[in-house]
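Let's practice the habit of predicting before peeking. Look at the sequence and jot down your guess about where helices and strands might fall. Then scroll down.
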Amino acid sequence: MSTRVYLEVGSRKVFACALDWPGWCRSAKNEDDALHVLADYAGRYAPVAATAGVRFPKSAAAGFDVVERLEGSASTDFGAPGEVPSADRARLTKARAERLAVLVEASWKVLDHVVAGAPPALRKGPRGGGRDRDKIVDHVIGAEVSYIRKLGLRFRQPAIDDANGVAEVRHAVLDVLRAARAPAPDLEKGWPYSYAARRIAWHALDHAWEIEDRSE
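Done guessing? Here is the structure:
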């Protein structure tokens, strides 16, 4: 069976995202390249599914079914999947909501595992750019605290060494996802739960993989 994906097409960047696998979402300069990179990352996403206890087919990257193309925005070109596909506006079953929650939780576990094994100073880019490990972790936590306002949750950003504070934020997110049945919270400009799960998982994994790559 083909993996359902959607494409978010900006003027300079295209995201290819797997609808049913929060966090498996990659970008490139055009549609074909975005799909190619998405396929390349199947092996890196498989441990996320394994951590969640969700079967990830070995053939997941063998074929993609592009079910929707979305017009991108400044967020797309900046480097974040910012548009909501039609499928994310469907009501959630208990099983679907639980699946979203365990895959988001697994993305955090993968990030934590990578961070624990990474050196504080990461290899710089060709022009000396790139955050070091703790700066990346702080950035991810800050972004998540911002993201979850779209779910009706408000927290002050915990410090990276405040394990209890980080856990409190994460538990609140997982509780909201597990309880979700409507497509989205009753909030002005709230995010659909499926999109929120994808965005949170993508951001955590994007930086986990960056840390892995720059630790070598």
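How did you do? Strands lie at 3-9, 14-18, 25-28, 64-71.
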